[in-house]
């Protein structure tokens, strides 16, 4: 009788632990995973979505998305293991001079174009006797003919 009570209490504690784990995550296939991510895809038996999902999942695996996810998830762990010298920067200020020069040339050319447009507007368009700032559509329709 005492053994039955002990078996029942040990079964109850096992059930309580199992229920606590079920509350924590609803479905987890393996207990010893590399990355503990409780995500799964489940279909009902004979689901019409399963063949389509199989196709997409096989494509995801073929492309390497799963491997990338694992590498991204394991990167902090691997970086702690491999504490090597820090990688030197690939860019420095001397290498950026070319980019700064290209930006300066672009800004200069855009400034010259803007000044040219303003000069053309003020000295050519506004001085035309047919120009009327209140009826600009008439002015431009006569210019397009």
UniProtKB/TrEMBL annotation:
Instruction: Answer whether the UniProt record assigns the keyword Lyase to this protein.
Output: no
Give the originating organism. Answer: Conopomorpha sinensis
- State the annotated membrane topology for this chain: Multi-pass membrane protein
- Name the predominant localization: membrane
**Does Cell membrane appear among the keywords?**
yes
**Where in the cell does this protein reside?**
Cell membrane
According to its record, what are the GO cellular component terms? plasma membrane
Identification of the protein by name: Putative ionotropic receptor 21
Q: Where are the transmembrane segments?
A: 96-116
The superkingdom of the source organism is: Eukaryota
Q: Which UniProt keywords apply?
A: Cell membrane, Glycoprotein, Membrane, Receptor, Transmembrane, Transmembrane helix
Q: What lineage is on file?
A: Eukaryota, Metazoa, Ecdysozoa, Arthropoda, Hexapoda
């Amino acid at each position: 009788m005492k053994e039955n009570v002990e078996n029942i209490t040990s079964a109850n504690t096992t059930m309580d632990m199992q229920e606590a784990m079920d509350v924590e995550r609803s479905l987890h296939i393996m207990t010893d995973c590399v990355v503990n991510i409780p995500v799964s895809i489940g279909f009902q038996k004979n689901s019409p979505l399963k063949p389509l999902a199989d196709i997409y999942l096989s494509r995801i695996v073929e492309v390497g998305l799963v491997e990338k996810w694992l590498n991204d998830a394991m990167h902090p762990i691997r970086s702690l293991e491999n504490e090597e010298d820090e990688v030197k920067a690939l860019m420095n200020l001397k290498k950026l001079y070319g980019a700064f020069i290209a930006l300066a040339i672009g800004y200069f050319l855009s400034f010259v174009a803007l000044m040219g447009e303003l000069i053309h507007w003020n000295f050519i368009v506004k001085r035309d006797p047919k120009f009327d700032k209140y009826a600009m559509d008439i002015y431009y329709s006569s210019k397009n003919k």
